[in-house]
Amino acid sequence: MLQLCGEGSILVGLDSRIRCRSLAGRFVLLGWIGMSLLAAVSAAAQGPGEYQVKAAFIYNFVKFVEWPAGNPDGIPLPLTVCVIGDDPFDNALDVAVRGKSFNGREFQVRHVADVQEARSCSVLFISTSERARVRSLLEGLKGTSVLTVGDTPGYAKQGCMINFLMEGNKVRFEINAGAASLANLKISSKLLSLAKIVWE
Fold first, then answer.
1. What is the fold of 2-199?
2. How far is CA 161 from CA 77, 106, 138, 182, in A?
3. Contact, 195 vs 174, CB < 8 A?
């Protein structure tokens, strides 16, 4: 059951594993990330669309995740952002990461057809069209350190690490920190503090 967790906190709940987050710190961090998002999304007279905003969030998520040690030969591998299933982004992901790098690793965007291809990705967006096989996809990624992202109700509960939520016209997200930990991914406390719900 959803419930208020105390004065100045947001509406969260569902079970004892979900932590409440203070609004004060959230607004400061949200403003900081928001400025990064504005820089990542092309300006438009009517403002960015939903998937432009989500693409910019995905780009920024990378900055708040610690991956295991990289390629042993010292050559920086690309940060590959993949989409499996129907692609709702059009070219928004390409625009969000174009010409950008993080820790010396350049971004690439790919579309993959199956879990074997997905195992070589850094980030995998699992489309709503894959809801029937999301469990098998996540099972097939075991043993990898792929950051999984979706925007379908129930994905986080099933093991997707970050799942977008829409509140009116606002993009929010929930995080399954336990799933990330099992993949040897450490999500920054700053990002966790911005999540509406944190599954542990």
1. Rossmann fold (3.40.50)
2. 22, 22, 10, 10
3. yes
Asked if 177 and 155 touch (Cβ cutoff 8 Å), the reply is: no
- Residue ranges per structural domain of the chain: 2-199
Cβ–Cβ under 8 Å, residues 81 and 97: yes
CB 89 within 8 A of CB 57: no
Residue that the structure tokens 């997905």 belong to: 118
Tokens, residue 132: 């029937």
Element (H, E) at 97: helix 92-97
**DSSP letter, residue 103:** T
User: Per residue in 102-130, pLDDT tens?
Assistant: 988 999 999 999 999 999 999 999 999 99
Rg (CA), the chain: 16
Tens-digit pLDDT profile for residues 151-161: 999 999 999 99
